[in-house]
Fold this sequence. Notes:
Number of strands: 34
Radius of gyration: 22 Å
Largest sheet: 21 strands, parallel
Strand content: over 45%
CATH topology of the domain at 201-421: Pectate Lyase C-like
Amino acid sequence: MAFKNIKDYANLVTENRGWTEAFQKAVSDIENEMGGTLYVPSGIYETCSILLKDNMKLELEHGAVLKFIDDCQLFEVIETEFEGILGKMYMPCIYAKSSVNVSVTGGGTIDGQGMRWWKDKNQLPYSRPYLICFEDCKNVRLEGVTLINSPSWTVHPVYCDNVLIHGISIKNPADSPNTDGIDPDSSSNVRISNCMIDVGDDCIAIKSGTEDTKNKRPCENITITNCNMIHGHGGVVIGSEMSGTVKNVTVTNCVFQDTDRGIRLKTRRRRGGAMEHLTFQNIVMDRVICPITFNMYYYCGKNGKEKYVWDKEPYPVDESTPAIRDISISNLIVNNAQAAAGFFYGLPEQPIENVTISNSVIRMNPEGPAGNPAMMGNMEPMKAAGFFLRHVKGLVLNQVKISGNITPDIDFDETADYIRN
């Protein structure tokens, strides 16, 4: 297997494209030798997109910084999916498509220089690039690196199998738009561990396409463990793109701090698919708006203001009706929650089913600000409320202690079927 040092290609550096040609030539040489390692020693390397190939490892030494040029005119445009819809996008800063055995490792830093992308987002002819995207790949490894200032989603494995993401740090400003941390999308056998994620949108968001996605595939067999989530709109989020179904997810031993929501599931009518067989345990949260939010009236995105999204009357159940079911949540410790201890709003024709929450302590902050537990229309902000339940079937609250709330522990009506032990 080949071993190439990017410094050996320094003669290809140009004033306007930096190290772009050097990386392209090094990747081509490694591809011709049937794979190998592209080694990046300490230093700063300005470049456009790097396209990885089969059996290739990009290894960044401590002190190495890949700095991606922020001039969109220098980026190739590709067709790929964003939020489940195929369209044109600037090529991700690091990209692999239909490849096997691809890795990005080491102690270096990958800087997407997203500031200009964020500022110009409404004037760009195409979608902003992901920082790292593996598309239709098998045997993917991302380990050790620090990722900062992503133009859009930071790490996006889509249609992949056997993905390991371990020991990485992600830092995007809290106000940066759509800079999700890690978004496994229609992928299987994904392991995320020992990561620190501080971003401007969802920290980890698990997705599987929308009703408009042609190639609907489940996102399944996902484990998330020993991770710290800071800021962001949610700690671990599922949806709202979940038409291919999300199942067999386990989240353990994590800390969520200052995330808007903690565990967040979101969908709406016509999405179809299911969120099922999910386990969350041993999670500590501090200063979250709402620790547990399950919302089947999520209105953001295309067609989000249509009547079928917000209508509270029952609709016929068919393949386009989404489902949330068979979920276990245990051993939560929540401090300084603001809006509500939990928010569950199912559909009248398809209630949220078979959720168990056990051995958990939720401490509300009665002096904190009011907030919206979920993004849905016609909901007043809440403050230090308990559990809010609408269209729920088979909810079990077992040894769940709530304190500091200024409304009853449980706000429910005739549509909520629950047991509290």
